[in-house]
Automatic annotation (TrEMBL):
<feature type="domain" description="HTH gntR-type">
    <location>
        <begin position="22"/>
        <end position="89"/>
    </location>
</feature>
<dbReference type="InterPro" id="IPR011711">
    <property type="entry name" value="GntR_C"/>
</dbReference>
<keyword id="KW-0804">Transcription</keyword>
<keyword id="KW-0805">Transcription regulation</keyword>
<dbReference type="InterPro" id="IPR000524">
    <property type="entry name" value="Tscrpt_reg_HTH_GntR"/>
</dbReference>
<dbReference type="Pfam" id="PF07729">
    <property type="entry name" value="FCD"/>
</dbReference>
<dbReference type="InterPro" id="IPR008920">
    <property type="entry name" value="TF_FadR/GntR_C"/>
</dbReference>
<protein>
    <submittedName>
        <fullName>GntR family transcriptional regulator</fullName>
    </submittedName>
</protein>
<dbReference type="InterPro" id="IPR036388">
    <property type="entry name" value="WH-like_DNA-bd_sf"/>
</dbReference>
<keyword id="KW-0238">DNA-binding</keyword>
<dbReference type="Pfam" id="PF00392">
    <property type="entry name" value="GntR"/>
</dbReference>
<dbReference type="InterPro" id="IPR036390">
    <property type="entry name" value="WH_DNA-bd_sf"/>
</dbReference>
Amino acid sequence: MVGTTIGTNAAWHGQQATYFIEDKDDHIYNSLVKAIVEHRLLPGSKLPEEALAETFGVSRTGIRRVLQRLAAVQLVTQLPKRGAQVATPGQDEATQVFQTRKMLECTNLPQVLAHCDENHLLAMEEIVAQEQQAHRDQDGAAAIRLSAAFHVQLQAIAGNQVLTEMVSQLTLRSSLAIAVYGSPWQQGCRCHDHSDLLALLRGKDSAALADHMVRHFDDIVANLRFNHDASEAPDFAHIFAEADPRETL
């Protein structure tokens, strides 16, 4: 396939699964990103170095390096004398994240259509099928992961790795926004929207595909509820129980 392949088990930042085989820092980073994106670590959750170091069996220095990496991609906020916590996007930031995604993803659709072939379509159909099954199983974590995979994989078809990486990073921040402002039932995107987008992609209907993508993002923002209550302290031992260093997202 052309471009960066983002399958259902790929890492959130767009790298292939082998990226996480040996490096301990990368494993911890991967585990924390996954927990944040899947809403097991909610916005506002405190991330004390000592507790995380004990959970992962590493030094506080190692945890500090990982938290700095997460802060660099705006998933974590670090405050002097208050430590680190999962970032909580404000209303303006949340809205702007989706507006930016809409601009990038809609603008790139002509290139997606130009490069799309049957293999791409089959890969997209597999993601949609798994996403629909996750919704039937009420598996919120999988639904969120597969929703992001759909959007990143769609953009990856065009072969623009820089844009694909940007969309991949924005899906992380989108998940934070949904965790803060989404309705209790809001787990990723509505999967029937993705089925409709895929049908338009297969039919190569450029205008209809762009219109539907615009409505798709507008609907997501319209369903956000801009109020937020502080989350309870997370149970790291439970969240990261039996984490496998070879696990991929």
